[in-house]
Amino acid sequence: xxxxxxxxxxxxxxxxxxxxxxxxxxxxxxxxxxxxxxxxxxxxxxxxxxxxxxxxxxxxxxxxxxxxxxxxxxxxxxxxxxxxxxxxxxxxxxxxxxxxxxxxxxxxxxxxxxxxxxxxxxxxxxxxxxxxxxxxxxxxxxxxxxxxxxxxxxxxxxxxxxxxxxxxxxxxxxxxxxxxxxxxxxx
Length: 187
Known about the structure:
With about 190 residues, this protein is an alpha+beta fold.
């Protein structure tokens, strides 16, 4: 998970619209898992209705601590990959001119770099909508590419000479590893 502090007023409804657009275009945010013949399968689901919790903590004695407590509690919840969603967003109003955007992703769908890409795209969509709220979706700038393109690139690499060379390198490099250590008990 991560949170991003935003200086300045935010139009929460517009921010929610930007995030709904992000969810619609980012296949990884619609991934869920099913079991087929005893094995897991990854499915990119249809776009579902999305709503953004907007939590006003500005009246708390320590608004930042209140927001962080909520985020920590959310991070502690187990996420079921079968039923998803595998992400959670929230917007915290710290004051009239300070907001915090919280984003939590299951590691099955996003790593640190992926989180950065999603945050950057959300900011780009919000900025476009803030300048022209009636802007058509096609005018929102470059969308994230489809997940299937990434899978295709990965399959092509694995089938390539470079993929074969890399695989042989790592098999050789890891073939001579020492046996794993064991726990010992001393009194």
